[in-house]
Amino acid sequence: MAGRVYVIGAGATKIGEHWDKSLRELAVEALLAAVKDAGISKREIEALYVGNMMSGQLQGQEHLGALVATWAGIPGVAACKVEAACASGGVAFHQAYLAVASGLYDCVAVVGVEKMTDALPSDVTAALATAEDQEYVVFTGASFVGLNALLYRLYLEKYGVKQENVASFAVHCHKMAVANPYAQFRRAVSLEEVMSSPLIADPIRLLECAPVGDGAAALILCSEGFLKRNPRDEIVEVTGSSVATDVLSVHERKDPLDAAAFRRAVEAAMRMSRVEVNDIDVLEVHDAFTILGVLSLEVTGFAPKGEGSRLVVEGELEPGGKIPTNTLGGLKARGHPVGATGVYQILDVVLQLRGKAGPNQVSEAEIGMAQNFGGVAGTVAVNVLKRVR
Amino acid sequence: MVWAESVPRVWRERVRKYRLIGGRCPSCGNVTYPHRLVCPFCGYEGLEPIELPRRGKVVTFTVIRHPPRGFEGREPYVIAIVELENGARILAQLTDVRPDEVRVGMEVEGVFRKFREQSSSGIIEYGIKFRPVI
């Protein structure tokens, strides 16, 4: 029987082009902010999981567990890097959850971090593409955006949906990010701006893609016993945490739009949490590209297939709507520092459940879900959190 | 270097890439490219190598306008999922065609082409690209 697990601390850096800060400095800044928020001593931390995808390629730096522990002044803790492409953060959180749920540790930290602006754009493009099969897929010249574009075209053709409707997801995210002090882009964009932005990989346009940025987010997880010894007011429990994988390459999947790993991970996390889809008050979806945001709404069960974009267009993703989604900007506008993203998503859910989400607060938010994709949903991490009264 | 500059890797992959060798699963019947030991769908160990047909149809495609390292200067080029005549699917670059001419359902055939060079003095990588059937 798994023990209960709580999130008691959350901290993050602003996402953006941090020319003056290194990967390790970003990670430490977020970690120390989370420790401070938890109101504990960092000496209480027994294990550290660092979610990161590309440090080996963009910084030539691996061994982030010991590196971040050293720079944070907690050498001695059990520490390692967790890598699962863009799902690195969500999977690192899952590992932290397991570490506490198992009963082995009482207090664990997870830090997601990515430093992307150290490298040239073509190198970042190539590094992101390592999420796919290098020898038989990337060998063809496919970029990561391009692989998602293959899905996008299939979707538009299969359901006869207008691209404008899917692209509206970006407009929604930018609108939400205006209120988020951590966000990379705190400004609204119009649908016309999105649809007239340059093509990156047809039909995907520039403003349908999450941006390149630097950032780190951290959370402190603890056991029931630890919480009793260190009581605090706003308590959030992790009620469900799951990770699933799919056949890696999109072209090998029977139906590329099926999202098998995603379905499995969502079902498992909801079963663990004993919640139904309609119990979810706030949702964080992995909108690295607008099409993924729309698909997520459908696969999770908020809209029939082919009709997810209707929720976006009708304003149902805003606070007060049917399912408030990406209320602090999502990947598109809050930002997508790849290995940090999964942790930022959970942090945004925690802020909502604590009632600290600012102007975009969802009233009486009790249950939140964060969905984090690696590759073209080759790995999916889903975490469900609940406010404890 | 983001993609491995490696002569042994190119040598190791030459048969599967040059001759389009896929794997047929005697247990579930699925055909996958490239050939490997274990079926990704049913887990059966012992896929049979088969040479795949070189004709197929475009299932979906995109135009790469911002290429990863190693493909700079070749953009725009087309990447597609091609369903071959026996049902196997392959991710491929299309060649001998303008991006605006490509359509879903277009019939294509495999041809031997150069892919990229591992630096100016490095080994040249080849494989199969697909072009419209005339």
How would you characterize the overall build of this protein?
The complex is a heterodimer of chains A (389) and B (134). Chain A has 389 residues and is an alpha/beta fold. Chain A has 14 helices and eleven strands. The longest helix of chain A has 17 residues. The two termini of chain A are 23 Å apart. Chain B has 134 residues and is mainly β. Chain B has one helix and eight strands. A five-stranded antiparallel sheet of chain B has the order 6-5-4-7-8. Chain B has a three-stranded antiparallel sheet with strand order 2-1-3. The N and C termini of chain B lie far apart (39 Å). The relative contact order of chain B is 0.18. At the A-B interface, helix 5, helix 6 and strand 5 of A face helix 1, strand 4, strand 5 and strand 6 of B.
β-strand amount of chain B: 35-45%
Strands across the major sheet of chain A, in which order? 3-2-4-7-1-8-11-10-9
Biggest protein-protein interface? A-B, 40 and 41 residues
Q: Total helix count of chain B?
A: 1
Structural class of chain A: alpha/beta
Helix content of chain A: 25-40%
Radius of gyration of chain B, whole Å: 16 Å
Task: Give the SSE string of chain A.
Answer: EHEHHEHEHHHHEEEHEHEHHHHEE
Task: Give the uncertain stretches of chain A in residue-range form.
Answer: none
Instruction: Tell me, briefly, the overall form of chain B.
Output: globular
- Give the overall shape of chain A, derived from the CA principal axes: globular
Oligomer: heterodimer
Strands across the major sheet of chain B, in which order? Answer: 6-5-4-7-8
The major sheet of chain A is characterized as: 9 strands, mixed
Which residue ranges of chain B are poorly predicted, with pLDDT under 50 across at least 5 consecutive positions? none
The residue fraction in helices of chain B comes out at under 10%
Structural class of chain B: mainly beta
Which terms summarize this structure?
heterodimer; A: 389 residues; alpha/beta; nine-stranded mixed β-sheet; two-stranded antiparallel ribbon; 11 strands; B: 134 residues; mainly beta; five-stranded antiparallel β-sheet; three-stranded antiparallel β-sheet; 1 helix
